[in-house]
Design a protein that fits this description.
2 domains; about 0% strand; 4 helices; mainly alpha
Length: about 100
């Protein structure tokens, strides 16, 4: 670190802070160390050290559906069995598409 330093204050909700602290601790980093590492990479790379993508139409649609379901307090599937059946049907459909493409 250079001769002078500054303090950075970042507003963050307690739940996110706790989850991030636990995840960083698992890899041997503290939150301040991770922030310093991140900012060093930004300075060195002159950009973000991660890839940001704009969600495609299908992802935006799924995100909007999830927001609606959460706002209305309802689930897409009524029970675990219906969820698992839906996932299995989707898997079979994707497998069939793969066979057609191959």
């Amino acid at each position: 670190m250079s001769g002078s330093s500054s303090m950075l204050h970042v507003p963050l909700d307690k739940e996110t802070e706790a989850k991030a602290t636990a995840a960083l601790s698992a890899v041997g980093l503290s939150v301040p160390e991770a922030v310093r590492l991140f900012l060093h990479r930004v300075a060195a790379d002159q950009g973000l050290p991660l890839e940001l993508k704009v969600p495609n139409a299908e992802t935006r649609s799924a995100m909007a559906e999830a927001d609606t379901l959460a706002r209305e307090g309802r689930a897409r599937f009524g029970d675990a069995e219906t969820l698992l059946t839906g996932l299995e049907e989707e898997r079979r459909g994707l497998k069939a598409l793969g066979a057609l493409a191959g």
